[in-house]
Amino acid sequence: KQEVTQIPAALSVPEGENLVLNCSFTDSAIYNLQWFRQDPGKGLTSLLLIQSSQREQTSGRLNASLDKSSGRSTLYIAASQPGDSATYLCAVRRHSGAGSYQLTFGKGTKLSVIP
Amino acid sequence: DAGVIQSPRHEVTEMGQEVTLRCKPISGHDYLFWYRQTMMRGLELLIYFNNNVPIDDSGMPEDRFSAKMPNASFSTLKIQPSEPRDSAVYFCASSLWQGATGTGELFFGEGSRLTVL
C-alpha cells in the first residue's frame, strides 16, 4: 500500500526566504506526482504535475523535482511571499489495471510566510 | 474552461435529513472523484468513476452514502439519512487520462461544506 509522508507538518519562514517542502512515498512504481495548494476554506489548486519519466517541472517561482528511486519529491519556492501562505499537499498516482486510478495524498505542510 | 463546479457551496441540515451534493466535471474529462476532508482524517477518497462507471467505492463509509454519474457532465453524492459525523467538506475532482493520452492531472472543485446539526 502506498504511503505518502510530508514533513514538516508546519513551517514558518520570513518573507523573501527560499524554502523546500518535502514529500516521500513508499512505492516507487508511480505514474505521476502532483503538488497542490490549498487556501483556508478553499479547494485544492494544482501547482505542478511531474510524470514518472520527468525529473522536474517549473512554474514561475515554483520548482518541483522527482526522484523515483529514492521515493522523494521536493517543492522549491523561491523568494517566498506572504501570499504563498497555504497548505501544500502532494499526491502520488499509481495505475493498477484497466480503469483503476490509485491516488494517495500526503497530509500536507502548512506554510506561513511572515512579512 | 469553468473548472469543476460543485453545488451547493454550503449546506446546513438537521440529522436524519437527506443531503444531495452535485458536481459538474471539466468537459471531456473521463475520471471523476468524490473526496471528503476533515481536520481529523484529512482527505479521504470516497468513490471514483471512469467514463461514468463506478470503479472503486471502497471509501464510501456506509450504506447511507451513494453516488451516481448518469452522464459525463454530472454526478451526485447523496447521504440519507445524514448524521452529525458526516459534517465535512466534500470535494469533487476530475481528470483526463484516456489510457495515458491525457496527463492525468487532477482538478478540484471549490467543495461543498456540509454541517449536520
Strand content of chain B: over 45%
Largest sheet of chain A: 6 strands, mixed
Low-confidence stretches of chain A: none
Straight-line distance between termini of chain A: 41 Å
User: Span between N and C termini of chain B?
Assistant: 36 Å
> What's the Cα radius of gyration of chain A?
14 Å
**Share in helix of chain A:** under 10%
Q: With helices defined by DSSP (H or I, 4 residues minimum), what is the helix count of chain A?
A: 0
Order of helices and strands of chain A: EEEEEEEEEEE
Return the structural class of chain A. mainly beta
Indicate the mean pLDDT of chain B: 93
Task: Please estimate the helix content of chain B.
Answer: under 10%
What is the approximate shape of chain B? globular
Element order, helices and strands of chain B?
Answer: EEEEEEEEEEE
Q: Outline of chain A, from the CA principal axes?
A: globular
Major sheet summary line of chain B: 7 strands, mixed
**Oligomerization:** heterodimer
Tell me, rounded to a whole number, the average pLDDT of chain A: 92
- The number of strands of chain B is 11
Which two protein chains have the largest interface (Cβ within 8 Å of the partner's Cβ), and how many residues from each? Answer: A-B, 22 and 26 residues
Q: How many helical elements of chain B?
A: 0
Compile the SSE list and pairings.
The complex is a heterodimer of chains A (115) and B (117).
Chain A: E1 4-5, E2 10-14, E3 19-25, E4 32-38, E5 44-51, E6 56-59, E7 62-67, E8 72-77, E9 86-94, E10 102-105, E11 109-114
Parallel strand pairs in A: 2-11
Antiparallel strand pairs in A: 1-3, 3-8, 4-5, 4-9, 6-7, 7-8, 9-10, 9-11
Chain B: E1 5-7, E2 10-13, E3 19-24, E4 31-38, E5 42-50, E6 53-56, E7 65-71, E8 74-79, E9 88-95, E10 106-108, E11 112-116
Parallel strand pairs in B: 2-11
Antiparallel strand pairs in B: 1-3, 3-8, 4-5, 4-9, 5-6, 7-8, 9-10, 9-11
